[in-house]
Amino acid sequence: MPSLPLQVAVVCSSNQNRSMEAHHILSKRGFNVRSFGTGSHVKLPGPAPNKPNIYDFRTTYDQMYNDLIKKDKDFYTKNGILHMLDRNKRIKPGPERFQNCKEPFDLILTCEERVYDQVVEELNSREQETCQPVHVVNVDIQDNYEEATLGAFLICELCQCIQHTDDMDDEIDELLQEFEEKSGKAFLHTVCFY
């Protein structure tokens, strides 16, 4: 088993639902975890599918929460957005963009293929400094509350299994294959270097 805890990042598009639910579960289980989004802006559902609420990544969860209360407290309570933002602001002040983080991780988990591609592209565009490997794994998770919760538990179970391996680099492919069979989900995996 690795002597140091895994440095884990969880990434979705807006750092709101899927990555934050996994961040919440992983931190409760004692993992050293950070969460991020890769989008150019933070998008939250609005009153119509073509009218999302769009925020800058510098906007705190508390500011988003207060803005939505002013816009339509009942609507955003019923659709669960205020509850989600309340959870988020208890975990960290606001969303973070993966592209702005230079901290190294052992494992980066993404929640959809487009985000996986963006993370890999970002890591490959950086100048290699330490040649420290980072495993990037995609777990496709639909962007709704139920799937975010189920996906977070799957991510947590995967992290626990990886944490208990003797050699993550040597054993991760076999572990991912086991998880694919068990979950019925396909996992993308690549190794990048810092």
Automatic annotation (TrEMBL):
The enzyme's E.C. designation: 3.1.3.16
InterPro entries: Ptyr_pPase_sf (IPR036196), RNA_pol_II_suA (IPR006811)
Annotated GO MF terms: RNA polymerase II CTD heptapeptide repeat phosphatase activity
GO CC terms, sorted: nucleus
Source species, domain of life: Eukaryota
Compartments in which it is found: Nucleus
Xref: Gene3D superfamilies: 3.40.50.2300
UniProt keyword annotations, A-Z: Hydrolase, mRNA processing, Nucleus, Protein phosphatase
Reactions performed catalytically: O-phospho-L-threonyl-[protein] + H2O = L-threonyl-[protein] + phosphate; O-phospho-L-seryl-[protein] + H2O = L-seryl-[protein] + phosphate
Enzyme class: hydrolase
Keyword Ribosomal protein: no
Record-level GO BP terms: mRNA 3'-end processing
Family: Belongs to the SSU72 phosphatase family.
Subunit structure: Interacts with GTF2B (via C-terminus); this interaction is inhibited by SYMPK. Interacts with RB1. Interacts with CD226. Interacts with SYMPK.
Function: Protein phosphatase that catalyzes the dephosphorylation of the C-terminal domain of RNA polymerase II. Plays a role in RNA processing and termination. Plays a role in pre-mRNA polyadenylation via its interaction with SYMPK.
Protein name per UniProt: RNA polymerase II subunit A C-terminal domain phosphatase SSU72
Native source species: Sciurus carolinensis
Taxonomic classification: Eukaryota, Metazoa, Chordata, Craniata, Vertebrata
